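A further point concerns the way the authors explain their paired sequence and structure data. Nothing conveys this as quickly as seeing an actual entry. An entry of this sort, consisting of the sequence and the corresponding backbone structure tokens, reads as follows:
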Amino acid sequence: MRLKLVGWVNDASIRQMEPMFPLPPGQSQKPPPALVLWIVWLALTTSIPIYQLVLGKGLPQGANAPGTGFGPVVVMAVGQILVAAVLRWLVLPRVGRAPQMLVVMIVGLVLSEAVEFYGLFLISPDQPETKLSLFLLSLLSCVQFAPIYARSGPASLLRLGAQQGTDRNP
């Protein structure tokens, strides 16, 4: 049984929708240039130390309070880092089209960046070692998403999309 959120929207109407800015006939959407991937990666990766310095008031120092173990927040954070690593090293290399690469990269970066927020807001102040560990895990996880496959400029992604993406599903 499918739920209808809005009475006038159904599967047929969704299929008939045209893009807001349709392309001229015979043209297809170009993949994003490599510069876009680098800018997105740089912006999301550099925001992690900024969050730590501004919201966390510097790097946490000291040892965890005695008797504090790993709570569910730490387990969830490590799980997200593992999912981000799977996206980077198993999913991203198999994605053949540049627009999908951008989406996978952003999802991985968001999963990685969320770990920093867990450390800032969900871990108690008496656990500075845990806060620092989550900060470093988050930062290193974002670094792994550096779009090194886009290192030779915008033309590299255009070639990559043309070579690997033409025979896959549109």
Summary: The CA atoms of residues 56 and 120 lie 6 Å apart. Residues 1-11, 13-18, 151-170 have pLDDT under 50 and may be disordered.
